């Protein structure tokens, strides 16, 4: 997943904090007409707010101090209507009765914790930067609030034989198996073609491991990346903060041994706006104790960088390419309007990750104006 043009931008442009570049990628050519000055101004404001000190308190739409239990569904008896009803309201759900064992999850966590004990030289050499994969951390001499993180391919492999991540590899594959099943059930509930089922090469998975530090605002400096769905195994009783479409920042407390499933921006576009989404990964919430330490292991099922994202068409509709380029399509005598324009995934992913737009939905600029 190499990016020759974007990697040059990443190396040449100055850092805002810990390696995140401030300049957005080239604007997708097929969306030029939708880039209004008001959207650019909102982006600039969001970037300005993002550069404020991490200890500065900013207002949220809802304080994540109180926690709520996510909607709970049994994976073994999951139905399309049941899943669609739950995630279309909140954008997240917890799964019980799944196939991922707690023993495997704990072994994967133990292996992941050891990654943060490596020297900085080892972290950078074992996990070379190949955006979006690789190691990233804040400057040791600058307390800028950026958490360390590792973004690994599904195999969770390294370039060195010194470090073996067998349990983490098995854990990532077990989560992906559950995630692909969820995507299949979800697309059936929406009544649309499942792109993953049509072509298994049309998706990829990233295991994202982040260190959680006491006192940091959840997710504020950890980077976002577009995804279809995200999965996190709940190893212990611990709150997580997430940024949802419907409620802003909220705190959730999933059941121990459940899997917290979050709907991402790609799924929202695929559903033509029917689904709510969660922006970024849920992050573990810690107190102010200086010795507090934990990690968040998230599997993101996403797309290859050369992908194009657009609302999916109902099953059985022919001439998909021609219909997908129209703002309206006549399906069975019923006119359906597109909510989103087509999105060049590579440009969008680069922009979402490096600009980290917390205060503005990055999908807004791709919405069809009425």
Automatic annotation (TrEMBL):
Keywords: Iron, Metal-binding. Residues 16-37, 53-75 are annotated as: Disordered. Residues 81-141 form the Non-haem dioxygenase N-terminal domain. Signal peptide: none annotated. The keyword Iron applies. InterPro entries: DIOX_N, IPNS-like_sf. One of its GO terms (molecular function) is metal ion binding. SUPFAM superfamilies: Clavaminate synthase-like. This is Non-haem dioxygenase N-terminal domain-containing protein. It comes from Pisum sativum.
């Amino acid at each position: 997943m190499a990016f020759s043009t974007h990697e040059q931008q990443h190396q040449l442009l100055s850092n805002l904090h810990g390696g995140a570049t401030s300049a957005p990628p080239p604007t997708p050519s097929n969306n030029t007409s939708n880039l209004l000055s008001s959207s650019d101004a909102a982006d600039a404001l969001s970037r300005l707010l993002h550069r404020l000190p991490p200890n500065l308190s900013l207002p949220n739409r809802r304080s994540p101090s109180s926690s709520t239990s996510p909607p709970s569904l049994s994976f073994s008896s999951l139905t399309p209507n049941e899943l669609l009803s739950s995630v279309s309201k909140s954008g997240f759900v917890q799964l019980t009765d799944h196939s991922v064992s707690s023993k495997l999850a704990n072994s994967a966590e133990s292996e992941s914790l050891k990654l943060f004990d490596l020297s900085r030289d080892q972290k950078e050499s074992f996990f070379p930067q190949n955006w979006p994969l690789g190691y990233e951390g804040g400057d040791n001499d600058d307390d800028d609030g950026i958490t360390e993180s590792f973004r690994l391919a599904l195999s969770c492999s390294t370039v060195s034989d010194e470090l073996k991540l067998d349990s983490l590899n098995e854990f990532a594959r077990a989560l992906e198996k559950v995630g692909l099943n969820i995507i299949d059930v979800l697309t059936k509930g929406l009544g649309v073609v499942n792109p993953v089922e049509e072509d298994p090469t049309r998706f990829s998975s990233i295991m994202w491991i982040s260190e959680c530090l006491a006192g940091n605002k959840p997710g504020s400096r950890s980077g976002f990346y577009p995804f279809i769905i995200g999965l996190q195994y709940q190893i212990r009783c611990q709150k997580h903060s997430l940024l949802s479409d419907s409620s802003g920042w909220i705190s959730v407390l999933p059941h121990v041994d459940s899997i917290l499933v979050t709907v991402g921006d790609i799924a929202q576009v695929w559903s033509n706006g029917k689904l709510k989404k969660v922006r970024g990964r849920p992050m573990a919430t810690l107190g102010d104790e200086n010795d507090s330490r934990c990690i968040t292991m998230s599997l993101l099922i996403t797309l290859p960088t050369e992908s194009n994202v657009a609302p999916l068409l109902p099953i059985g509709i022919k001439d998909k390419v021609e219909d997908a380029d129209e703002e309206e399509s006549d399906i069975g005598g019923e006119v359906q309007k597109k909510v989103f324009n087509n999105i060049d995934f590579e440009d969008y992913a680069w922009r979402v990750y490096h600009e980290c737009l917390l205060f503005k939905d990055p999908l807004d600029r791709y919405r069809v104006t009425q």
